[in-house]
Amino acid sequence: MWSTLRRFARESRGNVAMIFAISLIPLVYLTGMGVDYGSAAMREAQLNAIADSASLAAVTPSMMAQGDSASITAARNYFNAQATNLQGVTYNAANLSVTVTDSITTRQVQVSYTATSSNFFPTVLGQSTIALNGSSTAVGSVAPNINFYILLDDSPSMGIPASSSGINTLISNTSNQGGCAFACHESNPGPDNLGNPSNVHCADGTTKFPTGGEDNFALAQCLGLTLRIDNVRAAVQALTTTATQTATQYGSTYKMALYTFDANFHTIATLTQTLSTVSSDASNVQLLTVYDNNNITNGTNNSDEDTNWDGAMTSVNATSIMPNPGNGTNASGDTPQEVLFIVTDGMIDQHTSTQPSLSAQYGKYCCSGRQQSTVNPLNGSTEAFTDRCTTIKNRGIRIAVLYTQYYPLGTTNSWFNSYVAPLIPPSASQDNIGAQLQSCASPGLYYAVTTDGDITAAMNALFQEAVATAHLLR
Questions:
Q1: pTM to 2 decimals?
Q2: pLDDT tens for each residue of 428-474
């Protein structure tokens, strides 16, 4: 017997067996620990991802439009629904904490949890579970409530056809006027002897004006031409749909009012949250109708001063129309932000008390106090013009400007070539009108659309930029 034991001790193969037997215990322990802790780490990562999604669900635009309790409920419901379905995880909804911290500008939601992961080798580790915990924080910005005041130019220059081909068509049909691209609307065109053609074959297949005498507006309609004012009207109606959808997306309240200006300032729709009403009222946006040349009504001679920029900007700036803006939150006592949305070609034709000499860059005067110029013609002027845009912006109201670009019209009309053509740039890089309008606009809220351009798309793009750049203020 003793000799057998001595031989076993001297045998190297017996040493291997002993070493293996001794090392088997820690190997089993380490394997079990690796499996269980690895599983626990994977399950905790899954819970952390669920916590991330839960906190984000609490600060969506729709949640931001509601109270704290709605955010808390949204986070809890999301986390509970997902966490209870994880295999190998023991989770109690009582161990979920959701806290909300609000400021004027933001809402912060923190989701914290504790749970346990079931072990595959409880006897090896000496414990049946491993504790899990984690948290996630999301911050959402409150989209502000905004009132939009849309001011549209409906003066005769908005009667220019909206396409190059339309401009050429109208010019070719008004040769007796030297080729006029303005579809001016006159209720009594006879005394002006416009010389427009008779027996015109209209786009609808009919023949009209057997004796001639029609005004340029009637002629343009007969020829089936789409005018700038038509596209602007349609763009406003499309904008109300965009604004409604955006308000729903962001959980904000948007209101709109609609005004036009020509020789006077006109209210088309007062401020309302019912944007479908603004869309319906926009059908009343029409090109200015005058009596005849120089007379806005029968017996009222205004020298065709039909684009009163100063009057319009003064009128819309009244606090009865645009009150001082607030932060745009839903906090008690707060009021919406304000945005003035102007659509114009940037040309002024209005009365002024004096006749200073302006440089060709900014405009000319004629006809005893008639000002024909770009907006805010400060340089070269001896009259103290008021910068209407700065006055409004200084109140905290932002201004968005959509410029319907005004380029040479290829006409030989003497009035146009004397007083308008010198102001029109030969190219976009030399656009002094655009430069003036851009200085009027708030930073980032200027958009130019060319002839043949899509006014609806341009207006929607400018609106979205106005919404995107709106920031709540502390």
A1: 0.72
A2: 455 678 888 888 999 999 999 988 899 999 999 999 999 877 654 32
Over the stretch 84-117, which tens digit does the pLDDT of each residue have? 889 889 899 999 999 998 775 678 899 999 999 8
Tell which residue, 60, 128, 137, has the closest CA to residue 97. Answer: 137
Backbone dihedral region for residue 96 (phi beyond 0: left; psi -120 to 50: alpha; all else: beta):
beta
Dump pLDDT digits (tens) for 286-332.
Answer: 999 999 988 899 989 888 888 888 889 999 999 999 999 998 877 78
How many Å apart are CA 415 and CA 361, to the nearest integer?
18
CA-based torsion, 241, 243, 249, 254: positive or negative: negative
Please, what are the domains in the chain? 2-141 (no CATH), 146-468 (3.40.50.410)
